[in-house]
Structures are given as structure tokens and as C-alpha cells.
Amino acid sequence: MKTVAVLGTFDTKGAEYAYLKELLEELGVKTLTIHAGVFDPLFTPDVSNAEVAAAAGADIKEISAKKDRALATEVLSKGTEALIPALYKEGKFDGIISLGGSGGTALATPAMRALPVGVPKVMVSTMASGNTSQYVGTSDIVMIPSVVDVAGLNTISTKIFGNAAAAIAGMVKNENKKEGSNKPLVAATMFGVTTPCVNFAQAYLEARGYEVLVFHATGAGGKSMEALIDGGFIKGVLDLTTTEWCDELVGGVLSAGPTRLDAAGKAGIPQVVSVGALDMVNFGPYDTVPAQFAGRNLYKHNPTVTLMRTTVDENRQLGEIIAEKLNKASGKTALFLPLKGVSMIDAEGQPFYGPEEDKMLFGTLKDRIDPGKVEVVEMDNLINDQVFAEAAAQKLIDMMEGK
After folding, report:
1. Around Cβ 125, how many Cβ atoms within 10 Å?
2. Is 54 exposed, middle or buried (0-12, 13-18, 19+ CB in 10 A)?
3. Per DSSP, what are the bridge partners of residue 299?
4. pLDDT tens, 11-22?
């Protein structure tokens, strides 16, 4: 019989969790109850809050005596983040569910994010109808809006809890048994203005026996790719679109954070990197572009996206950052430079055509790259030319196959 971990604060929301436990058992799954509250629970859990606190190197009695809710949430969250993956590795449960407001959601979701992709995760939350990126991160947590507060059993909450219980029970009882592809997984990065390039490369790789996962370089996409690389899923990386670094550097809306370009290098897996869409910073609608950028070269990509051309100095800084990242790589690494343009609109006659900006980018990269660690390949092409895309794909194949 499958087991669902029920994680939460059984002191303040004991009645709700007791009800959820009953629903799950009626649906034919066992439960593993884990108490992450500060005080005594309404019912006896399988895993106590003392065990959760101990996993974070803390004493639950000391925490409760301080009566500091923020401190307690932080410590118990760290405890669950350490304990839950360990319990899963021991085969103690098959999926996990939790209920809560902002505090309960902040407490439970770090532990869910620490579980592998594919492990069923359901979070019933008052925060589920807003921006959930801080809770979901790069994981596959299913967030269900609680509609009303998680504060008592009533006509609405019991319906929501019932649906959530049925969802997690269905997930663990109906595991997908179909075998996935055994082909080596390659991660590739795409943006609208580099789509032809990645399409050519993807077709080339798939025709030669590889499975390609394409990530949209919108911040979340880059983070997801890096997380899957960290998780050991990816065998090679075709990082043709590194545009998220423009937003990180300049202050656009699609940053993937300062660790972008770290994972493949740390994992030591082969990577072919290019400079796709380093000509642009992303903002929302035209009137949302910060006043400090007035007078810059702006392009209305669509009604909700405004692009801003990177400057010569910004391209110098981007070259320095990317060179530094690639020089740290422990695995085979190649850098491909399309000398005629880095995006669909960085071409002669297009709105972001910038020979001086590109010259600075390419020159900085060539000056800063360590040739003993990174192979630099210059091609007199646009990034979206088929010959460029296929050359980059073949280079990755060669590195993956040890040629």
C-alpha cells in the first residue's frame, strides 16, 4: 500500500490535519504524519516536532520557550528540509501533502523542493493564487488555493481538503509505469529570438539518438535547467541562449540569478555555450521600463514585453562574467561565437544590430577565456543560421562521446 507523508503544524491546525489523515486513509493509502509545530500536537504523530528540530540541530523545548514564531518557523523549516528527503530515501513515503497559510507554506515547501522531481507534492495554501515562485522554485509542487483560510472545518474547506486528498492519493496510487526514453538527455536554452537556432540543433541531436529538453530562458527556465543538472539528470548542455545574464546584470525582469552557468561546470559534464540574445534586457509593457533607461534603444516585442539593447559597456561586463564562469568549469567546455549577430534582431537592418556592442562582447570573451580550459569557436554566421546550430550540436556530441 502506498504511503502519503502528511506534514504540518498539528498543534495550531490539528483538527484540519486529523481530517486530512482520515480522508487519505479512506482513499486507501497509509499516512506518515510529521509534526512541525512548536507545541504539543492534537494527535500523536509518527514523527515528532522534537525529531524535526533535532534534524536542524536544535532543541524543541528551547525553541518553544523563546516564543518567537519567526525563529521557530525558520528552525523547523530547516529541520523538515533535512528530514523529509532522508525519510523518502528510506522508502517511508511515496508522496507528500501539507496545508497552511503563509507561515505553513513557508514551513513545508522547502522540504518539498528538496525531494526529487516526480515525487508527488501537494500544498494547499492561502498563497496559491498569487506569485508562488518563492514556494515552488524549480520543483514540481502542485499548489491548490485554499479559497478560505486554513482555519477550521467548514463547507468550503472540507471540499478543498477532500479534493487535495484525492489528488495526492491518485498521484501515488496511479504512478506512471510507462518507461521513458533511455536516450542521453541534453539540455538546451531557447528564447524567441534564438528559436531557429535551437530548433535546428534539437533536430540534429535527436536524429543522432539524443533526447533534448528545451528550456525557455525566462529566468525560471534557466533556474530549472540548472536544478536538473545539479540533480544529475543531464548528460550534456547546449546553452546557446545565455540572455538571462543581461537581466541579472542590468536589472531586467527575467534574471535566473547569479548562479546561472554554474551547474554544468560544477558537475563536470560537457557543455557548449553561446551568446544567444545577449543583445537584450527584458522588461514588461513599454510604460513599465524604469525611467533611468529613458533614451535607450527600446523595442516593443509584443504588448507585454519590451526589449532594451545592451550597451558596449554592458557587453564588456557580460563577456567578463561569462568568461569567469566558463573558466571554472571542471568538464569539457566550448564557446561558440556567431560573429554576424547574437539574435534574430541583432542582424544588419534589424533594430538591435550592434557591430560595436558585439565586437566588445566577442573581444572580451576571447581576451578573458582560458584557452587551456575552454575551446573558442568563431563562425562567420548569424546565431540562427543552420550551419552554426549544427556545428554547435556536433561539438557537443563529440565531447559527450569522447572524440
Report:
1. 26
2. middle
3. 307
4. 999 999 999 999
User: Kind of pairing, strands 271-274 and 333-338?
Assistant: parallel
In sequence order, what are the residues at sequence separation of 6 or more whose Cβ sits closer than 8 angstroms to the Cβ of residue 386? Answer: 196, 200
Cα 289 to Cα 283, 284, 345, distances in angstroms:
6, 7, 20
pLDDT per residue as tens digits for the range 338-368? 999 999 999 999 999 999 999 999 999 999 9
Confidence (pTM): 0.77
Per the DSSP assignment, residues forming a β-bridge with 124 are 99, 144
Distance in angstroms (rounded) separating the CA atoms of residues 58 and 20:
28
144: cell is 491548490
Helix axes 195-206, 386-400, angle to 10 degrees: 40
Distance CA 205, CA 349 (A): 32
CB 337 within 8 A of CB 391: no
Give the burial string for 168-190 (b: 16+ CB within 10 Å, else e). Answer: bbebbbeeeeeeeeeebbbbbbb
Could you give the angle at which helices 155-173 and 14-26 cross, rounded to 10 degrees?
50
